[in-house]
Design goal:
Helix content is about 45%, strand content about 5%. It is built from 20 helices and 5 strands. A 5-stranded parallel beta sheet has the order 3-2-1-4-5, with helices on both faces. Helix 4 links the parallel strand 4 and strand 5. Helix 3 runs parallel beside helix 4 and helix 6 packs parallel to helix 9.
C-alpha cells in the first residue's frame, strides 16, 4: 500500500498504536546505531522511516554519485529489515510536514533519530523536535556519527578550533565511547502494510547512465564496510605512513563513503584499530589522526556553517578568481595536459572516488594555476564523489584554496610534474587512467612535452591531437597565482 500525500495519512489505519518511529538519515547500519538501540529498549514496535527531503539541505542536497550510493545503502538496509519481518517506510517531501503527519497517522508515541551537524539540517531537526513535543510525542536524538560532537570541544577560552593540531591534542586522549551493542533478537518491528513510497519512487538514481559503472568499484552494504575495514587493518595500516600517498597502491582505507552514509561508524573503526594494532606505531597513529581530521572537519562546519559557500578567512572573500567555464570543463574531463591531474579526474569520473594525494594535486592546479574558484571544484567533487561529505569536502577545498581552517598558504603551489614523479614514479597510475600515454617511458610520462619526437612517435602520440598540451605553463601559472595573491592583499 503506497500513500503519496500527507493528507492520506489520516485515513491510514492498518498501522496504529504505541509505536516508535525511527527516523533514518546518515546511519544506515544495524550495529553501533544509538537511535536504534534506544528504540529497541523502548519496547514497542518500531517503524523505520527514511524521508527524501533534498530541499532541506538547500544547495548542498546529495549529488549524483552520493545518491547512487545512498540508494544501494537503503536497499541493503531494507533487505536486512525484511528478514526481521519489518518494513521501511519511504516518504518524500518536507520532513517538517511528513514526519509529524506520519506520527499522527500511526499513533506513534515517540520519535528517535541520530543527530546531524550541517547548519540547515540542525535547524530543521530542532524545529521538528519542538513541534513533535508540543503534540505530546516523546522525541530523543543521539550521537552515532562522531567520536566527539562539536559542542563538546572548545579551546580553553571557549572558542572553536580553527587549526587541527591543537584540536588533535585536545581530543586525542579523551575516553572513547564504545560502539553501541544492538540486540536484534529483542527488536519488534511494525509488520504488514506501511505508508509511503517505494525506494525506486524516490528517484535517487541519477538519470545519466554514467553511474552504472560505479557498481564495478563498490559493494554497498554494512557487511562490505566491515570487510573493507578488516582488509585495510590486516594488509595496509602498518605501511599507511608511506603507502597512503601512492595512488597505485591499495594503501588507504576507502572507508569514506561508508562513514558518510553510516554503514560503519567511527567508534567501530577506532575500536577495531585499538584492538588490532599499537597506536604508538607510525601507520596506525597516522590513520587515527585521519579519523580525527574528519572530526575536525565537522567541528569547523558546525561552528562556521557558512563555510560551504564562503571562505572562513574573510580576506579571501573578494579574491580575484578568473572564472572560465571552458577551463573548468577541461579540468573536469581530465584534459588539462598534466598527466597526474588528468589521471585523477578520470579516475573520479569512472569510479566515484579519487585518491587523497591526487585530490590535493588536482585541486591545487584548479585554484592556483588556473585561478578558478574553489567553490566550482567543490561542486564538481560534490556531484561525482560517492564519499561527498559536506564537512570534509568543504575543509579540503578551503585547505587547497588557502582560505579555510588550517589551510595551506595560498602561495604553496604544487608542481604537478614533481608530484607525479614522486608519488607515481613509474607512471603506472597515469597509464591506468590516461591510456593514450601508456607507451611513454617513465622518464617522460609526467611531462610528455619534454619527450623527443622519436619517443613520441614510438608511443603513437601526437601532442595537441591525441593528448592536449598543458592548459597553462607551470611557471606561468605559478606566477599568475602569486600575482593574484598580491592583488588580494592590496
Amino acid at each position: 500500500m503506497y500513500i503519496v500525500s500527507i493528507y492520506d495519512y489520516l485515513r491510514f489505519v492498518s498501522v496504529k498504536g504505541n509505536i516508535t518511529l525511527l527516523w533514518l538519515r546518515q546511519d544506515l547500519r544495524w550495529q553501533d546505531n544509538s537511535a536504534l538501540a534506544a528504540a529497541i529498549a523502548a519496547g514497542d514496535p518500531i517503524l523505520p522511516v527514511y524521508i527524501d527531503d533534498r530541499a532541506a539541505a538547500g544547495d548542498w542536497a546529495p549529488g549524483a554519485a552520493s545518491r547512487w550510493f545512498l540508494h544501494h545503502a537503503l536497499a541493503a538496509w531494507e533487505q536486512s529489515l525484511a528478514t526481521l519481518g519489518g518494513r521501511l517506510c519511504y516518504l518524500q517531501g518536507d520532513s517538517m510536514l511528513e514526519l509529524p503527519a506520519l506520527a499522527a497517522a500511526t499513533g506513534a508515541v515517540r520519535v528517535y533519530w541520530n543527530r546531524r551537524y550541517e547548519g540547515p539540517l540542525r535547524e530543521q531537526d530542532a524545529a521538528i523536535k519542538k513541534a513533535l513535543r508540543a503534540s505530546g510525542i516523546e522525541v530523543n536524538s543521539y550521537n552515532s556519527r562522531l567520536l566527539h560532537e562539536p559542542h563538546t570541544v572548545s579551546t580553553d577560552g571557549g572558542q572553536a578550533y580553527k587549526v587541527y593540531t591543537p584540536y588533535w591534542r585536545k581530543v586525542k586522549d579523551r575516553r572513547l565511547e564504545p560502539p553501541v551493542r544492538i540486540d536484534l533478537a529483542a527488536a519488534q518491528f511494525v509488520k504488514g502494510a506501511t505508508p509511503g513510497l517505494s525506494l525506486e519512487a524516490l528517484g535517487l538514481l541519477p538519470e545519466h547512465a554514467w553511474h552504472h559503472k560505479l557498481a564495478a568499484h563498490w559493494t554497498v552494504s554494512e557487511a562490505a564496510a566491515q570487510q573493507q575495514l578488516e582488509q585495510f587493518l590486516a594488509a595496509a595500516v602498518d605501511n599507511y605512513a608511506t603507502d597512503r600517498d601512492v595512488p597505485m597502491v591499495a594503501g588507504t582505507s576507502r572507508l569514506s563513503p561508508y562513514l558518510h552514509w553510516g554503514l560503519i561508524g567511527p567508534r567501530q573503526v577506532m575500536q577495531r584499530l585499538h584492538a588490532a594494532h599499537d597506536l604508538q606505531a607510525q601507520g596506525p597513529q597516522i590513520f587515527a589522526r585521519e579519523i580525527y581530521w574528519r572530526e575536525f572537519a565537522y567541528n569547523v562546519l558546525y561552528h562556521f556553517p557558512h563555510t560551504p559557500d564562503s571562505p572562513l578567512q574573510q580576506k579571501y572573500a573578494d579574491f580575484p578568481w578568473e572564472t572560465d567555464r571552458s577551463v573548468l570543463q577541461r579540468w573536469q574531463r581530465g584534459r588539462t595536459g598534466y598527466p597526474i591531474v588528468d589521471a585523477g579526474m578520470r579516475e573520479l569520473y569512472a569510479t566515484g572516488w579519487m585518491h587523497n594525494r591526487v585530490r590535493m594535486i588536482v585541486s591545487s592546479l584548479l585554484v592556483k594555476h588556473l585561478l578558478q574558484d574553489w567553490r566550482d571544484g567543490a561542486r564538481w567533487f560534490w556531484d561525482t564523489l560517492v564519499d561527498a561529505d559536506l564537512a570534509s569536502n568543504t575543509l579540503g577545498w578551503q585547505w587547497s584554496g588557502g582560505c579555510g581552517a588550517d589551510a595551506a598558504p595560498y602561495f604553496r603551489i604544487f608542481n604537478p610534474m614533481t608530484q607525479g614523479k614522486k608519488f607515481d614514479p613509474e607512471g603506472d597510475y597515469v597509464r591506468r587512467w590516461v591510456p593514450e600515454l601508456a607507451r611513454l617511458p617513465a622518464k617522460y610520462i609526467h611531462e610528455p612535452w619534454e619527450a623527443p619526437s622519436g619517443i613520441l612517435a614510438y608511443a603513437g602520440l601526437k601532442l595537441g591531437a591525441d593528448y592536449p598540451e598543458p592548459i597553462i605553463d607551470h611557471k606561468e601559472g605559478r606566477a599568475r597565482a602569486l600575482a593574484a595573491l598580491e592583488k588580494n592583499k592590496g
